[in-house]
Amino acid sequence: MPRPLPRLLAAAAAVTLSLTLLAACGDAKKTDTHVKAASGGTDLSGVTLTLGDQANGLQTLLNAAGTLKNTPYKVKWAEFQGAAPLFQAMQSGQVDTGSAADLPTLQAVSGGLKIKLVAASSADGSGTAILTQPGSAVRTVQDLKGKDVVISSAKGSIAEYLLAKALTDAGLKYSDVHVQYLLPTAAQAAFNAKKIGNWATFGIYQDIAVQKGAKIVVDGRDGRTSGIGFISAAQSSLTDPARKAAIADFLGRLAEAYAWAATHRDQYAQVFARKNGVPLDVAKTVVGQGADSLVPVSPAVTAKVQAVSDLMHTIGSLPTDVKVAGTVDTSAFPHALAPTTATTATTPTASTSANPNPNANPSATSSASATPAN
Amino acid sequence: MSTSEMSRPPNAATAGTGTGTGCPATPEGGARLSKEPPEDTGPVAPPANDGDQSAESSGDVETIRPAHERRRRQVPRPLRRASGPVGALLLWWLLSATGVLSPDTLASPVRVFHKGWNLAADGQLGSAIRVSTQRVIEGFLIGAVAGTALALLAGLFRLGEDLIDSTVGMLRALPWVGLIPLFIVWFGIDEKPKIALVVIAVTFPLYFNIYAGIRGVDPQLVEAGTVLGLTRWGQIRHIVLPGALPGALVGLRYALGSAWLALVFAEQINASNGIGYLMNNAEQFFQTDVIVVCLVVYAVLGLISDLIVRLCTKYLLSWRASFDGA
Fold it and tell me: Is B72 in contact with B37 (CB distance < 8 Å)?
């Protein structure tokens, strides 16, 4: 049959080409800048650390604090709108570290992504809240019974956890409210247009709405949310000693930046407002709700987040039963920053001492780590 | 070109029957398999324009059969059409099985099939397809009416063109995903904004293709109509609209495709069901196998949409002899 052959061949060729390209994508990371294992862990000049970020959060903080200057390795930022694409990029090995709240991180773990939790940030939880329209009859969590509540961003978000926890605390069931999911930008438009009555949201969306008159029914303080965010690292990055050393150094610098932010709220807010184009008073609120320190992923932190995970699993918003402790790697950041009076950190006091010497076995040994000597 | 139809002898119906789509998988094609004339002594004389003077090559006589008989010995057309997708599937499976494609890059077809089976078994997939199909149908009907009406007004009347065409061209350039917050403000967060997105996705491809089809009608035919004394309305009815049909069908094919795609974005808006919802949710929880299942569903729905358009084409354009591939 002479006729159909060319068409078949062409189709087969096209398909082969696309699939091979796809397969090559999977291998691209292997041929990436793979540095030779730095001997002694001092020479990191061959390492380029790709830091994943959401909505410029970490980048703004580190720029404001100025603690990421003169690194012994190269730094590249990768910007993502949301946790899911950030984690996907970490899974592919294109991005070394990422920062996300506890629940998005749990979602990634539930999806079997190859990441490790290397450090945690802790905030008071006021950055998550359930809002209602000004003049609404809803005043307490009890009043939400039978009502529609819109949750941002999606199923399994921190805002959903706050709603579930607040309802549980108030003696109600999760099924007592009618839940709807909307991305925060869309929900913001809907809330402004009074198309939705009750909105469980977070961060800058919450603060802008409150500034425009929205009432807070309940927020995430007093343990209603964990307030914990995680810095996670791609497993493939942690297995490379030089890369891991660079990550440990980066975490030390990030800890300093948090310490700086805790004592320089106004300065930080000004930078934040400039960088994100929000009014200064909103920026002050956002910054005030932010984390005030970077801490190791201690058993206490793990237990706190495990409780979050379990509740979400019971309401069906986490598909698998996640065991948080199994995904923790404390070796890159085993000790919190010593409680010195935070300097402006232009003098790299702590960061030079944060010079890890990864031994040949990159497992959890706290000796090879960034620990300020003071 | 209907002129070639006219030059045929009226009883040449057995030869090719001129269903311009060239799909020999018709019942009569099957019926012809039973009689196999070794030489053409049957009543079927090949039409003169089949050109059988070229047989004189090396002295011995070669029997030239008409095209529809030569085709008989080949693989049936539907099988040939299926070979592309099946080949792709085989290659995917091979690459996964040999480990060239890592599961992180793309889940293996076996795993995807398993996941799809499970989703279908617990009713999730069925109800998602049902809900999405309903949204597509509603949006498509509204969009089809809007797109066709606008295209007719702009295509048939100069005033319509002046008022409509540039406006539609302008609106078409808007990134419609960026319209979502506006749609929510206008239509709320229930079914309306989702259907509105589908309407947008359907309206433009239909409009542009029908409009181009109307304006692209062969001027010689229009002239012939004038000479034959057709009224303005008669020209539109007998020449312009049939002439615009091929373009309209291309538009239909595009429109159906975009309607399904629009759902991915539409079902981010307060959806609790639908294929787009399944997909967005799977992205949240990194279930790549579910994402691939949804992609496969989209592909199958696209195939079905195309099949519908092909059938429409076959039925609507049966009068048109067309080139359907060598």
Answer: no
| Calpha distance A131→A150 (Å, rounded) | 10
Instruction: Give B245→chain A minimum CA distance, Å.
Output: 27
CB contact under 8 A, B73 and A1: yes
- Closest CB to B286: pick one of A108, A180, A182: A108
Could you give the CA distance from residue A86 to residue A99 in angstroms, rounded to a whole number? 9
Only one residue has tokens 């793979």, namely: A34
Burial of B133 (0-12, 13-18, 19+ CB in 10 A): middle
Decide if B104 and A107 are in contact by the 8 Å CB cutoff: no
A146: left (phi over 0), alpha (psi -120 to 50) or beta: left
**CB contact (8 A) between residue B87 and residue A156:** no
Its sign, for the CA torsion B123, B125, B126, B127, is positive
pLDDT value of residue B103: 81
Phi (first) and psi of residue A370, to 5 degrees: -85, 100
Q: Which chain B residues are closer than 8 Å to A180 by Cβ?
A: 189, 270, 272
When computed from its CA atoms, the radius of gyration of chain A, rounded to whole angstroms, is 23
* CB B257, CB A58: distance < 8 Å: no
Q: How far apart are CA A278 and CA A287, in angstroms?
A: 12
CA distance A369 to chain B (A): 31
Examine the pLDDT at A39 and tell me if it is beyond 90.
no
> What residues of A are in contact with residue B119 (Cβ under 8 Å)?
none
Residue A294 DSSP SS3 = strand
* Measured distance CA(B304)–CA(B136) in Å, rounded: 13
Q: Which of B285, B287, B288 to mutate against chain A (most A CBs within 10 Å)?
A: B285
Distance of alpha carbon B2 from alpha carbon A322, whole angstroms: 69
- What DSSP string describes A123-168? --STTEEEEE-TT-S--SGGGGTT-EEEESS-TT-HHHHHHHHHHH
Band (pLDDT 50/70/90 cuts) for residue B56 is very low
Nearest to B202 by CA among B140, B146, B293, B119: B140
Q: Which helix (H) or strand (E) holds A118?
A: strand A115-122
What integer best gives the mean pLDDT of chain B?
A: 81
Check residues A347 and A99 and name the one with the higher pLDDT.
A99
Q: Which amino acid appears at position B258 of this protein?
A: S
Q: Do B91 and A16 touch (CB under 8 A)?
A: yes
Residues of B whose CB is below 8 A from A26: 101-102, 104-105
Contact B80 A4 (CB under 8 A): yes
Q: What is this structure's pTM?
A: 0.75
CA distance A229 to A83: 12
